[in-house]
Amino acid sequence: MFNLILFGPPGSGKGTQSEKLIAKYNLKHLSTGDLLRSEIAQKTHLGLEAKKYMDKGNLVPDEVVIGMINDALDNNRDVEGFLFDGFPRTALQAEELDELLKKKNSCIDIMLALNVSEDELIKRLVKRGETSGRSDDNNEQVIRARIMEYHKKTATVADHYQKVHKVIFVKGEGSIDEIFNRLSEEIDRLKLNDNCL
Ligand code: AMP
Q1: Which of 34, 113, 165, 186 is least buried, going by the fewest C-beta atoms within 10 A?
Q2: C-beta 30 within 6 A of ligand 1
């Protein structure tokens, strides 16, 4: 198995790059944001509860997203690997993910962290709000709250994987293909090794 975390603040291009990476490397895309939006669309109890947090730009409680990831791992047993997008977003989520993968004799092989300046992030999110239909992209105050949540709770997740030398920072500005090539180069370098020993 090859398990990758695509990491970065809101608007850093995780969703766009994930689509291209899963196609190239035959990975199963697990985006907690997408899973939550699907719960909202189906008007499930979980979705309606999560929406209250998402509309304010706050993180949904850990146990909710960890439960969703646990189910997704169980429901996708025969895949070559996972690309985690938007998860883990807190230190606890990272610890739980490590445990869940360990039970499957696997681990996170690498975290690729996209670096994008704050001005560029806000510009991209405001622009995305014009077409994405996402209510949390439509309001600059909510966008700023999401970036603040990132600095307060999520940025530290990179430290967790840096302790085990599994983080590579990648410049997240430039054209979509330029960024994709940078990410691919890092994966190609790594894939030859067994990183879970
Ligand atoms: P995203 O699509 O990744 O930008 O996520 C949209 C929103 O879903 C976030 O602003 C959070 O409210 C919620 N969310 C997504 N993933 C997580 C996560 N791993 N932990 C907590 N909340 C999450």
Answers
A1: 165
A2: no
Q: Is 86 in the pocket of ligand 1 (CB under 6 A)?
A: yes
For the cut 90, the answer to whether the pLDDT of residue 191 exceeds it is: no
Q: What are phi and psi of 111, to 5 degrees?
A: -110, 120
The domain limits of the chain are 2-27+79-191
Are 97 and 69 a contacting pair, CB within 8 Å? yes
Residue whose structure tokens are 């608007």: 11
Q: What residues contact residue 61 under an 8 Å CB cut-off, 6+ apart?
A: 53
| Residue tagged active-site, from 51, 89, 124, 166 | 89
The CATH-assigned architecture of domain 2-27+79-191 is: 3-Layer(aba) Sandwich (3.40)
The Cβ of residue 93 has, within 10 Å, a number of other Cβ atoms equal to 23
pLDDT digits (tens, 9 = 90+) for 67-100: 999 999 999 999 999 999 999 999 999 999 999 9
146 flagged as catalytic = yes
